[in-house]
Amino acid sequence: MPIEPTENIWMDGELVPWAEARIHVLTHSLHYGMGVFEGIRAYETERGPAVFRLTDHIERLFASARILMMEIPYTVEELVAAVKETVRVNGLASCYIRPIAFYGYGEMGLNTLPCEVHVAIACWPWGAYLGDDALTRGVRMKISSWSRHDHNTMPPAAKTTGNYVNSSLAKVEALKAGYDEAIMLNAAGFVSECTGENIFVARRDVLLTPPMAAGALEGITAHSVTTIARDLGLEVRSEFLARSDLYTAEEMFVCGTAAEVSAVNSVDDRPIPCPGPKTLAIADEFTRAVRGRVDAYKDWCEHV
Ligand code: PPE
């Protein structure tokens, strides 16, 4: 999806014009995939733009950096303030926000310890990630021939740039085969997640989602959706799932910051009832929550 340029990008503490936010071609992270990033959304609320669960996202950025032994030269509070400033100066009511921390120019080779860490934050308007009708018509899913990388190869709990080689291979394969999105199984054959979303399946009044141990990212949207579902009276459990659990799902949806809540209409050409009533109820509450319209979840909206 093409990026729509905005005014300014925050780079190492300065706001620079969009077109001048450049780095050198010998930037370390470009060569070895050792960068960490976040995807965050700001939504229009009655009180102006609010960044959804901003502090949780920045804390996850630091957790990813910790896994890489990368020292981000800012505090969580400083980057929270920097994200708010970036959204504010660009004057957007709603947007997608991409903070990234990476090793810069000056060192080459695999030892990252001497590398300087840089941080940038950009934001721009970004529409529905899996299509405008992802909730009503649903998305067509294909189980990927690529396995999710393993905890002892590329830690899936860290949102690193390099991890997305795995996701991009699966995404392109699925699109080329005529599907909308890929489902990744881990090396043991259990369902982990999609290329950029967590998975939920409804079976006999219970919502099931694969645990982090299965190779899924600890999704902040998945956490919000779990809270919402429980508040709606549904049981939610984290459980290992096999591909057959998807084929026989009564309802299935995927969720992430970019994709929000998107219904699934089939997996490997096995149709799944779509959109199901639980999916719709959760998606509706989520849509209101992110816009600050549900009192119980107002703390999730961090005003800029
Ligand atoms: N799993 C993966 C692999 C993933 O990339 C995401 C977010 C999630 C789960 C859901 O996490 P959360 O956003 O905290 O609910 N994917 C981001 C990147 C998408 C992209 O194209 O880049 C996103 O949704 O922003």
Task: Report on the architecture of this protein.
With 304 residues, the chain is α+β, with helices and mostly antiparallel strands. 26% of the residues lie in helices and 30% in strands. The chain is built from seven helices and 17 strands. The strands form two sheets. Strands 8, 9, 10, 11, 12, 13, 14, 15 and 16 form a nine-stranded mixed β-sheet that branches. The mean pLDDT is 97. It binds ligand PPE. The site of ligand PPE has 14 residues, from helix 5.
Essential attributes:
304 residues, alpha+beta, D-amino Acid Aminotransferase, Chain A, domain 2, 2 domains, 9-stranded mixed sheet, binds ligand PPE
List the helices and strands and how they pair.
Layout: E1 8-11, E2 14-17, H1 28-32, E3 35-37, E4 40-45, E5 48-52, H2 54-68, H3 76-90, E6 95-103, E7 117-124, E8 139-147, H4 164-176, E9 181-185, E10 191-194, E11 198-203, E12 206-209, H5 220-231, E13 235-238, H6 243-247, E14 251-256, E15 260-267, E16 270-271, H7 277-290, E17 301-303
Parallel strand pairs: 8-9, 8-15, 12-13
Antiparallel strand pairs: 1-2, 1-7, 3-6, 4-5, 4-6, 5-17, 6-7, 9-10, 11-12, 11-14, 14-15, 15-16
Helix pairs in contact: 2-3, 5-7
The structure holds ligand PPE.
Ligand PPE binds at residues 39, 167, 193, 196-198, 217, 219-222, 256-258.
